Structure prediction request, 98 residues.
Amino acid sequence: MNLQSIESLMADIEEEDPLDLGDLAIDETEARRLMASHFCEIDERLSEHGLDAEARLEIMAAIAAHTMTENMILHLGRLRGAGGRDEFKDWMRRHGMS
Prediction:
């Protein structure tokens, strides 16, 4: 796992599912680099604690799933606050949950 490969894969994903940074004071490249660095650091620490690649992958998948759940909850709250039933259905469809 290295920073450049993670950033590249993230950029590929964002072609299909762009980030919505709104009016935040961070751009996509900075956000991508920050999170890719964080994942690489976690991987390095887990390796230093003796975890093999499979165990590290499982932990990373759990971290990603947790983050996706949190992201979904935030989106649902935002859509509910906007009263957007159609927007919610569109979001679910885009993410393969319809």
